[in-house]
């Protein structure tokens, strides 16, 4: 099975400019291919990850991926998928975002080479306005550009000349990489079809109609309930561990619906067809075990954050379900309780009743605190405390930084030592 057949099996192909020609080319040579991302933010989220998973598959199959971080195009804004003009960022912000995204890409594609990261600012910034208009503006037909969905969808709301020219700049990128990096294939989301085909048209005009340049887009990712993939009640799921902790990242994947999990295994893991088919069968026969979800969470978290992050996420998950909280590390407590209610406390020891009422305000009154403690409804760092004379000493746990309180079956609080 070649790389195109594998992508087709995984449901990862939406459109191809010349399916037969591309299939023949990838079986003849290890081509260069690229996907781009504009530095509009300082982290990718999992929606951004989709085209780069395809690039990674090509890399693992021996092809050479080129990752374009658009320092130039990111400074003007891609109209694709947008109903209104993007707000322009300062060049300082663009540069900061570009450095952050480059670091993420390097982690995903490896420290040992086998890929190239480029910045289109390096070549697009060298064109003067006259050069741009004479050498490139002249070969783009306005009527054709207006008919591209990326532009036509914005005509009623309005589109600036700046964003209108975006498809020309992206086309120039493809031409530059075709000539200088042996790139013959551009990968993108379904909303990039117009930009990709414009690039191929430019290559054919500049390099001749026989030039072998191709485009491939990926289907829009939707969940089984029809909603957009990658969004949660708390917002986007980021690759930056400071924005979305590895534990939260792991939990996102492990909580996927049975109806979606096999699709995500195909898209987001590098498991073999046999392994995925076996997990798909278990979804049908033993859905309660959620083996497919666990494997999905393990594989994607390992790819993005590494083995250690998987171990930490699994430790936190087990601790929360088995009261093994005292065995967690400080880092694991930070991750596991990031979004749970928190209070600030001093490091001074205190009687548990006074601590629950006065120090933390977790309990509304001493009477209620005594009742809950006597009834065994209070756990401190995973251990049941039913002695109203017990002392809580924050210095005894988690390097003196935290005390974890559970009240009842599910209500957790994180007490942070701040003084």
Written account of the structure:
The chain is of the alpha/beta class and 419 residues long. 47% of the residues lie in helices and 14% in strands. Strands 1-6-5-2-3-4 form a six-stranded mixed beta sheet, sandwiched between helices. Strands 9-15-14-11-12 form a five-stranded mixed beta sheet, with no helix packed on it. The chain has a two-stranded antiparallel ribbon with strand order 7-8. Helix 12 (246-254) runs antiparallel to helix 15 (291-305). The protein is elongated. The chain starts with a helix and ends with a strand.
Annotation keywords:
419 residues, alpha/beta, 6-stranded mixed sheet, 5-stranded mixed sheet, aminoacyl-trna synthetase, EC 6.1.1.1, nucleotide-binding
Could you give the topology of this structure?
Layout: H1 3-9, E1 15-16, H2 19-28, E2 32-37, H3 46-60, E3 64-69, H4 91-109, E4 116-119, H5 121-124, H6 129-136, H7 142-147, H8 149-152, H9 161-164, H10 166-180, E5 183-189, H11 193-207, E6 214-218, E7 231-232, E8 235-236, H12 246-254, H13 258-268, H14 273-285, H15 291-305, H16 307-322, H17 330-336, E9 342-345, E10 350-351, H18 352-359, H19 366-374, E11 378-380, E12 383-384, E13 391-392, E14 402-407, E15 411-417
Parallel strand pairs: 2-3, 2-5, 3-4, 5-6, 9-15
Antiparallel strand pairs: 1-6, 7-8, 10-13, 11-12, 11-14, 14-15
């Amino acid at each position: 099975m070649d790389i195109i057949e594998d992508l087709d099996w995984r449901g990862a192909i939406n459109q191809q400019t010349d399916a037969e020609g591309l299939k023949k080319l990838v079986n003849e040579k290890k081509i260069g291919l690229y996907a781009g991302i504009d530095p509009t933010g300082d982290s990718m989220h999992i929606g951004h990850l989709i085209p780069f998973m395809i690039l990674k598959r090509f890399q693992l199959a021996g092809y050479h991926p080129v990752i374009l971080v658009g320092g130039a195009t990111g400074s003007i804004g891609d109209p694709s998928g947008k109903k209104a003009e993007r707000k322009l960022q300062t060049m300082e912000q663009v540069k900061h975002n570009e450095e952050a995204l480059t670091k993420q890409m390097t982690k995903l594609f490896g420290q040992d080479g086998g890929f190239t990261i480029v910045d289109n600012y390096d070549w697009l910034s060298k064109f003067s306005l006259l050069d741009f208009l004479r050498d490139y503006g002249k070969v783009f037909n306005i009527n054709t550009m207006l008919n591209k969905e990326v532009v036509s969808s914005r005509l009623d709301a309005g589109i600036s000349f700046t964003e209108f020219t975006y498809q020309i700049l992206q086309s120039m990128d493809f031409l530059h990489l075709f000539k200088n990096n042996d790139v013959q294939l551009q990968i993108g989301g379904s909303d990039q079809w117009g930009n990709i085909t414009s690039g191929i048209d430019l290559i054919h005009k500049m390099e001749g109609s026989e030039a072998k340049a191709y485009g491939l887009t990926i289907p829009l990712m939707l969940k089984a309930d029809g909603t957009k993939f990658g969004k949660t009640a708390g917002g986007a799921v980021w690759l930056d561990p400071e924005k979305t902790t590895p534990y939260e990242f792991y939990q996102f994947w492990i909580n996927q619906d049975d109806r979606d999990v096999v699709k995500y295994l195909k898209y987001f893991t590098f498991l073999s067809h046999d392994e995925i088919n076996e997990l798909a069968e278990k979804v049908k026969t033993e859905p309660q075990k959620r083996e497919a979800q666990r494997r999905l969470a393990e594989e994607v978290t390992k790819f993005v954050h590494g083995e250690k992050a998987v171990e930490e996420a699994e430790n936190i998950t087990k601790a929360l379900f088995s009261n093994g909280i005292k065995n967690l590390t400080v880092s694991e407590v930070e991750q596991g309780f990031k979004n749970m209610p928190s209070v600030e406390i001093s490091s001074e020891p205190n009687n548990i009743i006074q601590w629950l009422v006065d120090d933390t305000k977790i309990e509304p009154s001493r009477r209620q605190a005594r009742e809950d403690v006597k009834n065994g409804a209070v756990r401190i760092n995973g251990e049941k405390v039913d002695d109203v004379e017990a002392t809580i000493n924050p210095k005894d746990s988690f390097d003196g930084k935290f005390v974890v309180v559970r009240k009842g079956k599910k209500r957790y609080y994180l007490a942070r030592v701040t003084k």
